[in-house]
Amino acid sequence: MNILAVSGSLRAGSFNTALLRAAQDLAPEGVSITLFSLRDLPFFDQDVEAEGDPAAVVAWKEAVRAADGLLIACPEYNGGITGVLKNAVDWASRGKPAPLAGKLCCLVGASPGVTGTVRAQDALRLSLRRAGARTEPQGDVLVGQVHTKIEGGVLTDERTIEALRRHVAEFAEIVRG
Q1: What are residue 104's phi and psi, to 5 degrees?
Q2: Rounded-to-integer distance, Cα 100 and Cα 111, Å
Q3: What percentage of the chain carries pLDDT values higher than 90?
Q4: What domain count does the chain have?
Q5: pTM for this prediction
Q6: Would you tell me the crossing angle of helices 15-26 and 158-176 to the nearest 10 degrees?
Q7: How far apart, in whole angstroms, are the C-alpha atoms of residue 138 and residue 148?
Q8: What is the pLDDT of residues 140-172, one digit of tens each?
Q9: NADPH-dependent FMN reductase-like domain: from which residue to which, for each copy (predicted)?
């Protein structure tokens, strides 16, 4: 099973990207989690699309299509979804068939705040559903006060490690159907 993982943060020391790296290590046997960087994805522009998708967009759409499911680490900026992540959803919502159409998505998120990324994940679920993706009714992984749980880019909090392990395993079972 191939899961594509994307972080809504471009920061080199991103807590959300660290969460995805931890998920790679915690994935059940037979599940491969591949990180995909959104760094080179241009802003969605229908004029650009009309001329043909740029190489970074083609790579993004192909990666989404090839994946059995998506694992998305959703930061929360100013109470909402990041522009980087919304842009990626917009590009992957285009085409026939759209790469996100029917795609299973699993959300996680980390924030220095107490409530984790609850508002951003709600907004992301709405955008993904509008794009035709499926966000399965799993429990949330909302890693609050993440700066106390990830040290040097490594998830160290045992409770969070176990929650992430269960979440990824449950998602893999949903994808298997």
Answers
A1: -80, 130
A2: 26
A3: 93
A4: 1
A5: 0.96
A6: 60
A7: 25
A8: 789 999 999 999 999 999 999 999 999 999 999
A9: 1-147
Domain that holds residue 154: 2-176
CB atoms within 10 A of CB 112: 13
3-state SS of the chain is CEEEEEECCCCCCCHHHHHHHHHHHHCCCCCEEEEECCCCCCCCCHHHHHHCCCHHHHHHHHHHHHCCEEEEECCCECCECCHHHHHHHHHHCCCCCCCCCCCEEEEEEECCCCCCCHHHHHHHHHHHHHCCCEECCCCCEEECCHHHCEECCEECCHHHHHHHHHHHHHHHHHHHC
- As a whole number of angstroms, the distance between CA 3 and CA 21 comes to 13
Position 137 pLDDT exceeds 90: no
